[in-house]
Amino acid sequence: MVKIAIAGGSGHIASEVIDVLAATKKHEIMILSRKEPATAETRTGVSWVKTDYSEEKQLTKILEGVHTVLSFTVAHLDPSNTVQKMLVTASIAAGVKRFAPSEWSSASLEELPWYAPKGEMREYLANINKDKKVLEYTLFQPGMLTDYVAPEGTSKHLVPPELWMDFPNRRAITLDGKEGFVTLTTMKDVANIVARAIEYTGEWPVVGGIRGTDVSMSKLLEIGIKVRGGKPWDITALKLEDVQAGNLHTSWAPTFHDPNLPQEQIDMFSKVILRGCLLSSLTKSWVVSDDFNRLFPDHKFADLEEFLAEAWAGKPRRRWQQMGSSDGI
After folding, report:
1. Are 256 and 273 in contact (CB under 8 A)?
2. Record's family (predicted)?
3. Is the CA virtual torsion 107, 111, 112, 118 positive or negative?
C-alpha cells in the first residue's frame, strides 16, 4: 500500500484512473484540487485536499509521506507548466519517490502545437535528472483513447470529444490519397496498467508507452463503417497541401468545447486541432511504444474491432455532447 497524490483529479481521465486505483483497496489516494469536490466523496481510501499550487512550503507539507504523484493538469490551461513545476519541486522536497507528468496521449508532439507544454515538461524533468537521479518518473503515453470513438457512457467518466472521425454521425474528414496511423488504447486498459505500474517494484521506464492497437486511418474508417451500419458515411477528402495551408473547406467540422475560453478562441482552436490531428496521423505522432506492455506481458489488451463492435451494438445515431476543458486530445 502506498499513498498517491493526484493533481487534476476531477478530470475525466483522472477519474477513471482513480476509480481503478480505489477499487484495489490497496492505496491511500489524495486528490489535489483548487476547489471543493462537487459531491461528497464515496470511494474507499480517497480524500480531497484543497491547494492552489502557488506556495512551495504548503504543497511540500501536503506531499509529505506521498509515494507517487500523478498529474492530469490540462496543457493549454497551464502553458508555462507553473503548476507541474511546482509539483515537481515540492515532490522532491517532500521525498516523493515517483512522479508522472500530464501526458496521457501522443508520443511525438509533431503537428500537435497545443501539446507544446508537454514537450517543455519532458525537457524539464530530463534536466533535473541530468547529473544524478533525483526523481523517478515516467511518461504515460497510450496514444489516442479508443473510448473517444465509442459512444458516450462506454466509460463512466470519459466524455468523447468531437473528432474528425465522427462515429456517432457516420461521417469523416480524411486526407485525399494519404494514409495516417494512430495507436488506440482503451481507457480501461490505461487505468489498469497505471494501477499495475503503481505496484511495480522495479524502476519505471522514462518513456511509458501503453500500446493497445496500431491502426491506419483507412482501417479505422473501415471499422467505423462496419460497426455503425445504417446509412452510408459522409466522407470529405481534403488535399494535403490545403490542410497544410490551413484551408479546411468542409461542410462540417468538429468543435473543441471549453467554457473557459471565448467563442473566437474556441473557433480558432478548433481549426488548429483539426489541422493538427489530420497531419499528426501522417507523422505517426500518436503511435506509441510498448514499454509497459513488455513490463506486464500477461495483461490482455482489448481488441480494437471487438471493443467498438460491442460498444456500438444497438446504438442509434447520436449527436456529440460538449466536452469540458478537463480532458481532450
Report:
1. yes
2. Belongs to the NmrA-type oxidoreductase family. Isoflavone reductase subfamily.
3. positive
Which contiguous run of DSSP H or E holds residue 48?
strand 46-50
Where does the chain have alpha helices with state H?
12-23, 56-63, 82-94, 116-128, 187-199, 217-228, 240-244, 263-282, 291-295, 304-312
Closest CA to 185 of 277, 106, 109, 252: 106
φ and ψ of 70, to 5 deg? -110, 125
pLDDT tens, per residue, the chain with 329 residues: 899 999 999 899 999 999 999 999 999 999 999 888 878 888 989 999 999 999 999 999 999 999 999 999 998 889 999 999 999 999 999 999 999 999 999 999 999 999 999 999 999 999 999 999 999 999 999 999 999 999 999 999 999 999 999 999 999 999 999 999 999 999 999 999 999 999 999 999 999 999 999 999 999 999 999 999 888 999 999 999 999 999 999 999 999 887 878 888 888 889 999 999 999 999 999 999 999 999 999 999 999 999 999 999 988 755 444 444 445 45
Spatial distance between the Cα atoms of 82 and 233, rounded to a whole number of angstroms: 44
> Is 297 part of a structural domain of the chain?
no
55 with 36, same domain: the answer is: yes
**In this structure, is residue 152 part of a structural domain?**
yes
Place of cell 490519397: 177
Same domain, 252 and 221: yes
Cell of 262: 471565448
DSSP SS3 for 6: strand
Residue 222 and residue 98 share a domain: no
CATH of the domain at 271: 3.90.25
What pTM, to 2 d.p., does this model score?
A: 0.93
